[in-house]
Amino acid sequence: MPEPVQTLTAADRERIRRRYPRSWFARPAGVAGLAVTAVLLLAWLVWAGLDQSTPAVSGRVDRYTISDTHLDVTVSIQRPDPGVRASCLLVASAQNFERVGEVEVVLPPGGEPLVQQDVRVRTFRRASTASLEDCSAG
C-alpha cells in the first residue's frame, strides 16, 4: 500500500529554511576562488621544488674510520661554481645520537667543482658515525 503524499506548508518551508541556511558564499564565486587558490598553490609548489632541487653546495660522507679520540673522514663537496667559497659542517655522533665532535670544512674559491677532502674530527667520546650538515656557498 503506497504511503500518502504529504505536502509542505509555508510554516514547514520556513522552519526548514531557518534550520539549513544557504551557504555564505555564492557557489560559482566559491568554486572560482578555490580554483584560483589551487592554481597559485600549485605554482608555488613547482617553483619551490625547482628552486631547492639544485643547491649551491652539496656534500656527502664517502668513508670514515673510527678511533677512540677522533674520526678520520673523507668527504666529497660539490659546487656548480668553483669561483665561490663553500663550507659544510662535519658532525661526529655517538651511538646515542649525541654530537661528540664537529668541524667546519671550508673550500676556498677556485679549484674543481667536485672536491674530495680528508678531514680529522677530534671527539670527546667514541663516535659511531659522521654526517655533513648545513652546506652553503659564500
UniProtKB/TrEMBL annotation:
Q: What protein am I looking at?
A: DUF4307 domain-containing protein
Organism, as annotated: Desertihabitans brevis
Q: Which UniProt keywords apply?
A: Membrane, Transmembrane, Transmembrane helix
Q: TM segments?
A: 24-47
Query: What Pfam families would the database entry show?
Result: DUF4307
Which InterPro entries does the entry link to?
DUF4307
